[in-house]
Amino acid sequence: MPQLGPINWLFLYIFFWAVVGIIFVVVWWDGRKGYKISGAKKSVSDYIWKW
């Protein structure tokens, strides 16, 4: 495990939560609209909810 400086850890932390937030918003918006844009997104959202 390479040593990471506080700047790198902060970047990884922000990047991780940005990805989680984007996925959550996409899944929530898709569910609120009541239709699925693609089957791939549905499988991803199902995997997230099961996990």
From TrEMBL:
Residue intervals passing through the bilayer: 6-29
What domain of life does the native source organism fall in?
Eukaryota
The answer to whether keyword Protein transport applies is no
* Molecular function (Gene Ontology), one example: proton transmembrane transporter activity
| Keywords linked to the UniProt accession | CF(0), Hydrogen ion transport, Ion transport, Membrane, Mitochondrion, Transmembrane, Transmembrane helix, Transport
Report any Pfam family annotated for this entry: ATP-synt_8
Give the bilayer topology.
Answer: Single-pass membrane protein
> Subcellular location, in the record's words?
Mitochondrion membrane
| Any one GO biological process | proton motive force-driven ATP synthesis
The question of whether Cytoplasm is a record keyword is answered with no
**A cellular component term (GO) from this record?**
proton-transporting ATP synthase complex
Mostly located where? Answer: mitochondrion
Q: In its UniProt entry, what is this protein called?
A: ATP synthase complex subunit 8
